[in-house]
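pls ignore typos typing on phone
zinc ion + seq
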Amino acid sequence: MNRKKRESKEDLPANFSFGINDERLKKEKNSARILRNSQWWKRQKSSGLCHYCHQQFRPSELTMDHVIPIIRGGRSTKGNVVPSCRQCNTEKKDHLLMDWKGYFKSEEP
Ligand SMILES: [Zn+2]
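k done
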């Protein structure tokens, strides 16, 4: 009888998405892979600069980060991907999770 009852609204399921279906997700991930292999991306990384903390890294240490995550409707386009160090990438993810509900609200018409 010690089953904890919680408001389900507080816990979004891991596969929660904003109407993004698997097909779209797959397509965007594929686009991201292509973009990651492009000369354009190599140029972006060659500066070694992290988009978020503006610190200098080795190009190989930078990862591709979607400013608007695919799951939230972002696309794998040049305008939506930035070089990010691993630390910022991780911190941004945490931040997004905390702001998850805020984003949800603001995206309502
Ligand atoms: Zn950084």
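The longest strand covers residues 62-66. Residues 6-10 have pLDDT under 50 and may be disordered. more later
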